[in-house]
């Protein structure tokens, strides 16, 4: 009877340890939302303070969504999470105003313009070139 009790105790302890390890690791959806808010949404809001520009007026609200629940892997074996930013000007939300991805290791943000992905600094007025292969999932083996 004692060996059986010991076995169950060990199994319980091991299962608790693995769940604690997962608790330290943030979810992809939560992580990408915080990363995009800090790295793109807040800087865009600060940049859009002028009301007399010829560009479209700033939206009343932006919301960040993770497009998929888990991270994808590109051809260089780097993990990224696709995201979309929806905007609201009046009472209606417009989906996918900005789409892009955030890389897990570096936190680098890329946004899609045309068929290519550029660093997110592009939306903040910096002249940056498109990055080949960014945000493109590698084919599964």
Structure explained in plain terms:
The chain is α+β, with helices and mostly antiparallel strands. The protein has a domain at 27-124. The protein contains two helices and six strands. The protein has helices at 2-24, 28-47; strands spanning 61-66, 72-73, 79-88, 93-103, 109-113, 116-119. Strands 1, 2, 3, 4, 5 and 6 form a six-stranded antiparallel sheet that branches. Strand 5 and strand 6 (116-119) form a beta hairpin. The longest helix is centred in the N-terminal third of the chain and has 23 residues, at 2-24. The radius of gyration is 21 Å and the shape is globular.
Spatial extent as radius of gyration:
21 Å
Question: What is the string of helix and strand elements?
Answer: HHEEEEEE
Number of helices: 2
Could you tell me the mean pLDDT? 82
Strand content bin: 25-35%
| Helix share bin | 25-40%
Annotation, overall tally of beta strands: 6
* Regions with little confidence, pLDDT below 50 for 5+ residues: 1-25
Question: So what's the overall shape?
Answer: globular
Terminal Cα separation, in Å?
Answer: 47 Å
Largest beta-sheet characterization: 6 strands, antiparallel
> Would you tell me the structural class of the helices and strands?
alpha+beta
Outline of this structure?
By secondary structure, this protein is α+β, with helices and mostly antiparallel strands. Helix content is 30%, strand content 27%.
């Amino acid at each position: 009877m004692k060996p059986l009790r010991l076995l169950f105790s060990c199994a319980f302890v091991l299962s608790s340890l693995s769940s604690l390890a997962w608790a330290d690791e943030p979810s992809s959806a939560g992580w990408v939302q915080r990363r995009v808010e800090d790295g793109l949404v807040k800087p865009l809001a600060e940049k859009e303070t002028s009301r007399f520009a010829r560009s479209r007026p700033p939206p009343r609200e932006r919301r960040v969504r993770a497009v998929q629940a888990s991270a994808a892997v590109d051809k260089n074996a780097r993990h990224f999470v696709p995201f979309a930013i929806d905007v609201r000007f009046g009472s209606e939300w417009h989906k996918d105003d900005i789409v892009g991805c955030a890389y897990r290791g570096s936190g680098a943000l890329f946004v899609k313009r045309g068929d290519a992905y550029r660093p997110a600094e592009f939306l903040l007025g910096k002249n940056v070139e498109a990055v080949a292969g960014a945000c493109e999932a590698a084919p599964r083996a």
